[in-house]
Amino acid sequence: MVERADFESYYGRPIVKAPAWEATDIAGYFFLGGLAGAGSVLAAALQAGGAHRTAAALKVTSVGSVGLATAALIHDLGVPSRFTHMLRVVKPTSPMSVGSWLLAVYGPVAGAAAASAVTGRAPRAGAVATGGAAVLGPAVATYTAVLASDTAVPAWHGAHRELPYLFAGSALAAASGAALLLGPSAETGVARATAVLGALGETAADHAARRRLGPVAATLREGRAGGLMRSARVLTATGAALALLSGRSRAAGVGAGVALLAGSVCTRFGVFAAGIASARDPVHTVGPQRARLAADGASAAPD
Amino acid sequence: MSSAAAGAHRPHGEPAAEVPDPASDSGYPDPPDRVGFFTDTSVCIGCKACEVACKEWNALPADGFSLSGMSYDNTEALGASTWRHVAFVERQVPAAPADGAVDPGGRPLLGLTPVVPGGEADAGAGTDAGAGPAGSEIRWLMSSDVCKHCTHAACLDVCPTGALFRTEFGTVVVQDDICNGCGYCVPACPYGVIEQRPDDGRAFKCTMCYDRLGAGMEPACAKACPTESIQFGPLDELRAGAARRLDALHEAGVSEARLYGHDPEDGVGGDGAFFLLLDEPEVYGLPPDPRVPTRDLPRMWRHAAAAGLALLGAVGASAATAARRKGSA
Ligand code: SF4
């Protein structure tokens, strides 16, 4: 890898441009989308297992989250009326176009599932909507990883293989946290298991991403992103441990839920901040590209 | 300069392979020739006529009068209201070797005549240089940067509204009445070209003077360039001319000359605006091996699908285990 000493740049200026997105809007959107999507999956599983109260709470959480997430996206556009342009075309090459259509379908379906659960009306349609939201949920939770990685931002694109798993794990941990926080303690069995699986998945993907990123992984360790990622690690581990050990203790369940949700927030804001930092420092653009050229050169050499 | 030339693994200066035809790929039945810019930085004098002409023709907002403090370059970078940017590099280099073409002032000579397609090459060496500490000299490099009008353009790929589109000339243009200010194109561009205007959020960049092209005129920057550092024309002709210019410079001993963005095999399928540089690309603020991020999009979707399935599996397995426990309890 290129060391900083041999690395050249134009007066240290960035080569790629960091997105002008507000962290609260877009990292917040990543978190809320994950909470909503994974929440829909968990809600369907809980409903099938008879944990109706937690399922209903998650359905309401999902529709609230996706509503807030959409509001965050629209807020980031500056001029809200422009949002309709998002649905002008269907573009498979644009994760944002794919995501907009996904939300346009998922939002109403999740809304119907929640409405039926809360009012007790149209249970058949409610069950169909619950199933539909559970099928779309994983896509809502993971497509945001593709949205971030389909850019020239070194920390995001460099981890494009690992980011979807990181986001899926973080989403599952968050949704499990919401279930532990909102559901009655008699219904926490499934969520306690998924909390641990989500935390494990997130941790494994985080490790893999750092290994893949090499020197660019410094952006996940340093500065604002570093603080957020360390907080995420502590919060998620604490939440998972509490979930594992809480049994039917309501207080421990609430503590686990809050820690898991906060951990997921920190993960998304941490990944977001690392991306911005990696775009701003040209060494993270030049370094991996130089390493790639050196590797290509070595493999193309005749002997 | 680092020892590994930018494209050591790729032959530079060979007659260009077939020019990709993005206009036809985008569905134009019988498009005109793909046009582009060849910016020969070896003859750039840093006058910034291109920057001014671009601002004037396109009625771009002013940037204010701030001084960058880093060099004579107070423009600093391409952006929403800066569609041509003249980079100005001042660095200390070892003195030119005695056998090089050197004028009595101790400066290496560089012929300023660009190669016109089919014309005679008249090349010499010639960065403008002054005296530095013993054994070294100060070298100036100037280069007018611009949107590359990529064959595989990330900005266009990721635009969710269709505001960015491919023109019949093979260039990439934003329709400002369609752009909704999502800003996705900004981090997608591997060259850091396109940018949102802070006051209204929409994204702007070089159009290669789409309006002028439609009227059969050349872009304002190329028209204004007094040294023909910025050459405009059909891309295949520009590539042939650039290859001749590169050969001439190499023959004249300017071994550091290299083309950038001319190779249809590169990570963006070749640029509609390519360059002749006298140092590594990153010295000018250009990425050494840019790639269009959407190239990896199928793989990203596969991983996202696998991650989504893993999520379903984790919840399913947890629910099944809980149900089994309940059943056996
Ligand atoms: S250089 Fe950037 S803005 Fe220009 S066409 Fe390529 S991706 Fe788009």
TrEMBL record, chain A:
Subcellular location: Cell membrane
Keywords: Cell membrane, Membrane, Transmembrane, Transmembrane helix
Stored Gene3D superfamilies: Formate dehydrogenase/DMSO reductase domain (1.20.1630.10)
InterPro entries assigned to the protein according to its UniProt record, in alphabetical order: NrfD-like
Major subcellular location class: membrane
Membrane-topology annotation of the record: Multi-pass membrane protein
Keyword Transmembrane helix listed: yes
Sequence intervals crossing the membrane: 26-46, 58-78, 98-118, 125-145, 165-183
Taxonomic superkingdom: Bacteria
Similarity field: Belongs to the NrfD family.
Record's protein name: Polysulfide reductase NrfD
Organismal lineage: Bacteria, Bacillati, Actinomycetota, Actinomycetes, Kitasatosporales
TrEMBL record, chain B:
InterPro entries in the record: 4Fe4S_Fe-S-bd, 4Fe4S_Fe_S_CS, FDH_Electron_Transfer_Unit, Formate_DH_Fe-S_su
Cellular localization per UniProt: Cell envelope
PROSITE patterns assigned to the protein according to its UniProt record, in alphabetical order: 4FE4S_FER_1 (PS00198), 4FE4S_FER_2 (PS51379)
Location of the 4Fe-4S ferredoxin-type domain: 35-65, 138-169, 170-199
CDD domains: FDH-O_like
Region of interest (Disordered), ranges: 1-33
Protein name: 4Fe-4S dicluster domain-containing protein
Keywords assigned: 4Fe-4S, Iron, Iron-sulfur, Metal-binding, Repeat
Stored PANTHER family: FORMATE DEHYDROGENASE, NITRATE-INDUCIBLE, IRON-SULFUR SUBUNIT
Chief subcellular location: other
Classification lineage: Bacteria, Bacillati, Actinomycetota, Actinomycetes, Kitasatosporales
Pfam families: Fer4_11 (PF13247)
